[in-house]
Amino acid sequence: MESEGHETEPGTTRPGGRTARVRAAVLEAAGDVLAEHGFAHLDLADVARRAGVGKTTVYRRWGTATGLVTDLLLDMAQQSVPRTETGSLLGDLTANARLVQRTLADPRQGALFKAVIAAATCDPKAAEALHGFYAVRVKEWAPCVRQAAARGEVPEDTDPYEVIRAASAPLYYRLLTTDLPLDEAAADRAATATAAAARAGAFGRGA
Amino acid sequence: MESEGHETEPGTTRPGGRTARVRAAVLEAAGDVLAEHGFAHLDLADVARRAGVGKTTVYRRWGTATGLVTDLLLDMAQQSVPRTETGSLLGDLTANARLVQRTLADPRQGALFKAVIAAATCDPKAAEALHGFYAVRVKEWAPCVRQAAARGEVPEDTDPYEVIRAASAPLYYRLLTTDLPLDEAAADRAATATAAAARAGAFGRGA
DNA sequence: CAACTAACGGAACGGGAGTCCCGTTATGGA
DNA sequence: TCCATAACGGGACTCCCGTTCCGTTAGTTG
To answer: Keywords, A to Z (chains A, B) (predicted)?
Structure first.
């Protein structure tokens, strides 16, 4: 029962050089393990071995499997793919859906996202990180819905966030609850359906 | 390295009486643990203690946490809520979406589904069971789309399964990737959007 | 370029998860 | 009803996850 007041986390006072190298090596190794064996078999000692890093270090800095996955997600959040603009809502949503589809269909990336979702259902910290991750992504794409509203494609009171989420949702649902292939047709269908619903005013804030 | 040919699993030769009682007690205890602490802290020894059952028995019959969750899902699959018929596609989809929403919003049930999803992302057996579970549910509701097609509400070539999945997807996506409330409004929005998209022919098999 | 110390790494340790052994219970069939 | 044995249960045992201790390495500051 430590009675001390909030000691500084390892890696915060001297974030440069070796500390950063260790983090990079560990996160890469963790990604490898997740892609190969999945979240259930994510053993911190194994990660340390692969990363060429002391077991103690991994336990000290990340503590648990969910903690490690959470940091991996924070790292993933850094690399942002820029949004493309096509001039129509359907075009923009299709671009978004295909981006999501390619990411989830990629063996390594798909496994990582599955692991992150699994971690989020177990651990509040991981869940918070995951929610933040998607909040950023959704916010990034929301402007395309506002532009569509400005063009008169959809009603003025359309909720942009709901539209963007609606375009991704079927892809995640398909990934998690079926063994059907996550192909481009699925992405296009999600985009088409979302665009049609948005045009019909299904995402109006009032209704 | 057993060279023996496929020994019978415990519980298959004498499924009645004590065996069934043990299974019921263990599954209930497992559900309690999942609802309280989540999948990450599902300890088989703890489950055995709560169920008033020998630790050895739990390890022998279920082996791992994912195995236990898988059996729990098979048990959940038994209880089927009958489909309601309202006479319109929007009405039927709303009924379906609200059923899903109420299930996921319920503290215990919601926790169970989260756990099952987490297990499915880790273990192939669990994934197979989960996919089967949703295949049955989707199949159960598909007729309402065919009836809508017969009434001329949606195009003839509409894929019923895709429509049903589309109605649930936003709710699961919201549950997993956001901290927004999973309320009835979200369910109604999902149903409205799906119905509108279906009417517009977004779930046509050809397109 | 020193000095200070944050952060790492090896090694030994403790505890609990998972296994094994074998005696006990009670089910399904004759 | 009785028998054969499937399935359970307790307890001892093993192994490895996670922790602790402390010496070593290398950022950071002046």
So the answer is: DNA-binding, Transcription, Transcription regulation
